[in-house]
Amino acid sequence: RAGSSPAGLAHGAPAARWPRADDDGGEGFRPCLPRLAFVEGARCQTFVGLVIAANSILLGVETDYPGMCWDSVEQAFLVVFVTELVLRMGYNGCKYFVRRGHVFWNWFDLIIVGLGVSESWIIPQLASGMNSSSTLAIRSLRLLRLLRLLRMFRLLSYLQKFMDAMVDMIPTLMWIFGILFLFCYVTAIVLTHMLGKMEALSGLDVSQEDQDELLAEFGDLCTTMFTLFRIVTMDNWHTTALRVTKYLPTWRIFFVAFIVFGSWTMISLLTAVVSDHMLAATADLNEVERRRAHETRLAFLAYLQKSFHEADSDGNGNLDRAEFVEWTKDESILRKLHQVGIEMQSGELISLFDMFDIDGTGQLSIDEFVHGFARTQDSLGMNHFLALEHMIKRMDRQVDIVRQSVDDVVTAVDARGGPTVSTWSVGSSPSAKLSHKVAQLEEIVQTLADQQRSLVGEQANVSEAMRGCQGKLDAIASALQTGGSDGGGGRRLGAGGA
């Protein structure tokens, strides 16, 4: 029997490198006003995200259709953002500015909302004495409201995963860009001398139009580097290449080699780096989810241990049926079980007592109690079916052994000349010889009774596993009936699984 430590019942995963926006960083954070905790809840953050999206759409509409009542709508959006900021500052208190895992986003929100308040409420009161250039600069601050879209990276996990990958790949991208820049820089120096200063074309009859085009493309170092950048992106590169190879045919090799290395090789390398880091970011996100599930499971098992001791009214270290029934009547217990995915009512929980009582003593030890609910919380998997199949096969083998033993006893009695089983009666008067045989038979029957009791224990295990599987299969069938597009097919699948 496994130990009752929660660490032995759950499988964890290492923490991810990048903290999530809603991670307290393990600092033991205590809110200043706990009643405002809803402001950092999922519903409130979803509402704020929708408001940010609506505000961004408004900026786009206002760009094409100015002069309408957009200012009033913008004021309403600003009121929402200011209210949300004040509530969050009230919830965090002074730790709003230093809370680990939240510092960047908290200061970011404060600056963006502050700019919005200044541009919409404060500066218009002071704009009477400003010139037109100052007024234009102030109104340009409105474009900074688009930075609120960056909060979507905080609210949406997939956008946050993308941002994490972008930040993580910056060092590798810098090395690749550095190699590409050095390659273009050295090549630009050579081409400026050979083509821009006409050193490679000296003695050739180059038209004045081509000379002007070559000078416009390779006249100085910066211009040559920009031309090479266009060739790397393959933007109209053939025009430049044909102009040069018309007079220098061997330069075809240069343009082919430059494109193969600068465009195909380096761009492919950039794509590989981005893909690798995106996959790594996805793995990190999965590790974070597994870690959260692990922590939730540990907390639930610790809660079960505490609840077990509270329900043990007589303090004997076990729960009898009456104590278990009383425990299931607690509404807080039912809510906690619902939070971890155990959707059962009080009457259904009572039926779990016999399933958890494996040894059949009529009492639950703390191991049986905790491990029973831990198994109930697990999803139905192939290992459950394999364990059930193994127990059924083992029970069948034991039944065959008992049947063979009974057949052997009957055969032995008949072979020794005793009465057959069909002729035995309670009221008969057996002889001394028959009494001896009956005594031997009673010993064999006692052995069979012991085997039968062992078989009953195995049947209890099978019944427990079958009830667990039946409940989970019923839940699967119900989900298929309600969620599937073909209701009839879902009912047939659920019935077949049962």
UniProtKB/TrEMBL annotation:
UniProt KW Calcium keyword: yes
Region Disordered, residue ranges: 1-22
Family matches, as InterPro entries: EF-hand-dom_pair (IPR011992), EF_Hand_1_Ca_BS (IPR018247), EF_hand_dom (IPR002048), Ion_trans_dom (IPR005821), Volt_channel_dom_sf (IPR027359)
SUPFAM superfamilies: EF-hand, Voltage-gated potassium channels
One Pfam family named in its UniProt record: Ion_trans
Gene3D superfamilies cross-referenced by the UniProt entry: 1.10.287.70, EF-hand, Voltage-gated potassium channels. Chain C
This protein's name: EF-hand domain-containing protein
